[in-house]
Predict the 3D structure of the following.
Amino acid sequence: MIFDELRRWPDVEAHGLVAVDAADRLILDESAERRASAEPGDIVVINDAYGALTLGAAHAGASGIRTHVDALTGERALEANASRVGLTGRYRALALDAELVNGARIVLLRLPRSLDALRDIAGLIAAHADPHVVVVAGGRLKHMSVSMNAVLSEHFAQLDISHARQKSRVLLARAPRDGPDPAPAAARVEGLEVRAYGGAFAGARLDIGTRLLLDSLPVPPIGGTPEDPYIDLACGTGIVGAWMATQRPDAHVYACDQSSVAVASARATMLANGVENRVEVARDDMLSTRPSSSASLVALNPPFHSAAAVTELIAPRMFADVARVLRPGGQLWCVWNSGLKYRPLLARTIGPTEQVARNAKFTVTVSTRR
Ligand SMILES: C[S@@+](CC[C@H](N)C(=O)[O-])C[C@H]1O[C@@H](n2cnc3c(N)ncnc32)[C@H](O)[C@@H]1O
């Protein structure tokens, strides 16, 4: 089977971090009979992590598969896996919008952990899929809750639940109804308008670590130009970038995140604050598209998840990319959970690192590129 050949690369790889799991296998097994009679274009995959669902379906004969992967590293892993197993061209990667699900008859859905994300996805499918669509939605039991049944039931009149297998389960949703297109949650936070589609980090709220970062972060007179914008790395809803843009009304900002839900949210946040002309929002893996030695200021609240797995491997990679992009004398302002003890790592990777704020849970440091 092709599963043995699938990898997470270019996402982090380490012992215990897998590219395919029991929930992927269960979703494919529970949908096999329906997929056998599918026409090209009938099958849609949502939230595939590294391509197991898309390529599992393609390997069984499906073509014209439409796929949405939220994380850019996951989308690139799917591409690399497809070429490794010779299944390139059997799917198209699309954004989470009407084109993805229009007329779909079978949807293979890897359940997101966030109920708001599930609500957005369920609404979108119900709004645009074929009336006879079957949604085969699965996950690991430890990431599932009965609230997911309730959310799916808001938009599907029939819900059946599989037996659990290898600590995984599948929900089968049919008879779509009342589907709205996703709209971002909106809130006013610390004088800023925040917009969040389901699944964006912290929703339309200010995370307590981010709050400590904003309380400390200066908007210096250098940088903030179109060539040297302030950088909001791993921007989530864009709250840090919007804050920097509103603090200095002529400042240019570059905000990026690898999650497509985050990017859509950050774009909506910038529009809501009227700073969209000065803030470029990009879907990027770390700062891969920024030139080396070009930036004066990067702000970062780093992630500690890769797909559903908690891992400490991502932040060191991000710090290394920040070190590449900062010019000598440029600064990284970073907030981190104090238990992670990032200070020596920051000093080693970037340069002299000072603590500027600390509370019961978080530390903010500034590291100056040597
Ligand atoms: C802790 S959240 C911070 C969000 C936002 N800056 C805030 O403070 O509210 C971390 C963010 O990192 C993003 N992320 C994870 N891996 C990434 C990568 N390789 N490149 C860019 N962003 C990434 C996640 O999608 C998430 O939005």
Summary: The first strand starts at residue 43 and ends at 46. The pocket of S-adenosylmethionine is lined by residues 73, 201-202, 207, 210, 234-237, 239-240, 257-259, 262, 285-286, 301, 303, 314 (CB under 6 Å).
